[in-house]
Amino acid sequence: MNPRLQLLHPYPFQKLRELFAGVTPNPGRTPINLSIGEPKHPTPRFIKDALVAGLDGLAHYPITQGSDALRGAIAAWARRRFGVTLDPATEVLPVNGSREALFAFAQASVDSSRHGRRTIISPNPFYQIYEGAALLAGARPFFLNTLPENGFAMDWSRVPDDLWQTVNLVYVCSPGNPTGRVMTLDDWRELFALSDRHGFVVAADECYSEIYFEEGAPPLGALTASEQLGRGFRNLVVFNSLSKRSNVPGLRSGMVAGDAELMKAFLLYRTYHGSAMNPAVQAASVAAWNDEAHVVDNRRQYAAKFAAVMPLLKPVLEFDAPDAAFYLWAKVPGGDDTAFARGLYEAEHVTVLPGSYLARDAANANPGRGFVRIALVDTLDACVEAAERIVRFSGCQK
């Protein structure tokens, strides 16, 4: 087996299961799980209908590039959402969810030759796929701590000058997981200037881009920023997904778009990778990308949950309202995130994710320590009930 597999850390939810081993949660409480970012709003009926209507496509092998209809639907959505013109033939690829594409892109892009670029920069805390992708591609992950005093921004001055010449890929996540921070145009300007100077690729994970709180004021995306800054899509690839946008995490459908030369090479990799999308899933995806009404309703539901939950939690947890996404990144009383999560599970049968499980020790600190990630993915009533239980539990800890 590939010896690099031994470098992988346990996934956060495996660590959570180990943390809860031997704990019997309060039998008087129904379980509420706010640890995983899995949307629980109902999948729209029209997407299910399109999936069923596309079942005849199972009689044919799909092509890796996806159907013209699907690439066209993604490009049309990008024009509506980001105000950019993508060539569906050369700048768009459908993928089996953004997770597999974020991983696969590193395998395709890292120069593993003796003198190749072998560093991948990731925010810290981070989505663990970035780290696994780097390690299995033979690269060295470099974790850039995002801290409250910095507004959870990535501080590029903390990257050693001599490291830049080794950097192949920089992962960024906006809106961020777990902090909910959205990168500004100035943030993008600084990152693109570094990319143009040092020649690395920017991989922008935007799977939470459609979960925001004010209609008509969507988060700035990488494609929009790059166009506004007059640089086209050079050395930029953007990843997005229908999972959060359309409440279809089981569909495993997403997209990658950006630099045509990078996309051409990535397509070549994917033809060998065996990652063509199921034809019925393609049909459902076309329907989902073409409709916005269900996305507006989705946002309305999340906004209602944040409006109800944040005032309840403010007296007992320290947090700022996220710019976007469906997480609260909250500092816990006492500063021990694992003890808080374990105690809350035992006393109130509410599951949240310790922040230290989403980060690595870097620059003499684990920037997730002392925080928990609370995913407001359940129903409004369940989220309110969970918040009330967290308040009760926190009061008992004082």
Tell me what the structure shows.
The chain is an alpha/beta fold and 398 residues long. The protein folds into two domains: 3-42 and 294-397, Aspartate Aminotransferase, domain 1, CATH 3.90.1150; 45-291, Aspartate Aminotransferase, domain 2 (3-Layer(aba) Sandwich), CATH 3.40.640. It has 13 helices and twelve strands. The protein has helices at 12-20, 45-53, 68-82, 98-109, 129-136, 185-198, 222-228, 242-246, 260-273, 279-289, 293-313, 337-348, 380-397, and strands at 32-33, 92-95, 119-124, 140-145, 167-173, 201-205, 236-241, 254-258, 327-331, 350-351, 353-354, 371-375. The termini are far apart.
Strand order of the largest sheet: 2-8-7-6-5-3-4
In terms of DSSP E residues, the strand content is 5-15%
Q: What's the CATH superfamily of the largest domain, by name?
A: Type I PLP-dependent aspartate aminotransferase-like (Major domain)
User: Could you say how many structural domains there are in total?
Assistant: 2
How many β-strand runs? Answer: 12
Whole-number average pLDDT?
97
Helix share, percent: 25-40%
